[in-house]
Amino acid sequence: MSANHAKPFLGKRIVVTRSRSQASELSRMIEELGGIPFEFPVIRTDWPEDLGPLDLALSRLGEFDWIILTSVTGVEMFFERMKQTNGVLPAASSVRWAAVGSKTAAALERHGVQVAVTAEEFVAEGLLRSLGDQVAPGQHVLFPRANIARKMMPDAMRAKGCEVTEVDAYQTLAVTENVEELVRALQANEIHAVTFTSSSTVTNFLSALPVYDPRSLLSGAVLAAIGPVTKETAEDQGLNIDVMADTYTIPGLVEALARFFTTNSR
């Protein structure tokens, strides 16, 4: 195997837009394949402005038939708040847990939870298909989620006749650092790719560049999205996504981008 195939990112600077606390996995994988991660976090997570609804839900977990988590961040914030409020998990026989994605399921299992259903796909629609007929009308479902999470899944559960409680387990906030450095690197064509790992990374990335034409600024870079929802958000805002992961995970995104660079000299 040639060096370029072993290191498909050799010498390439790749922008990582994940939050500072989440960037390390993607940055490490970029480095392992010869690339140079340019960390430009455009989001950070924090507690919701009002913890009341989350605390109320945590105090009555035994009343729910299903608890559904859609991200690792949601899991960690959920259990951290449980610890802070001295919450107690309901008996395993009284509630079932579901997760979007294997990493979310693994995070739940690290907290001693047995996951009944894991999404076949790493999007909410995949979880809905995986749940199938296991969710019955009249059941009570809890969604601890991000403040900006999509409504498709809770609305679909309501359409099945479920009693759905949505609570913000965390909020996603926009941050901007090193904007001038990034703009200079883009203008000098020193950035080879920009990765988007959620719709909020797209929106906040563009918001960080208000005085620039993003399509012109990004014209020399390969744009990579983690999945179809992120891709759609980017394209709705006028960006052209060159690469989309087949599996909607960080490793899937890296694999798709590596394949692109291996087959396209750019």
TrEMBL record:
Domain Tetrapyrrole biosynthesis uroporphyrinogen III synthase: 25-255
Lyase as UniProt keyword: yes
Superkingdom in the source lineage: Bacteria
Xref: SUPFAM superfamilies: HemD-like (SSF69618)
GO biological processes: protoporphyrinogen IX biosynthetic process; uroporphyrinogen III biosynthetic process
Catalyzed chemical reaction(s): hydroxymethylbilane = uroporphyrinogen III + H2O
EC numbers, comma separated: 4.2.1.75
Top-level class of the enzyme under EC nomenclature: lyase
Pfam families linked to this entry: HEM4
InterPro entries: 4pyrrol_syn_uPrphyn_synt_sf, 4pyrrol_synth_uPrphyn_synth, UROS/Hem4
Task of the protein: Catalyzes cyclization of the linear tetrapyrrole, hydroxymethylbilane, to the macrocyclic uroporphyrinogen III.
Designated name of the protein: Uroporphyrinogen-III synthase
Species this chain originates from: Tumebacillus avium
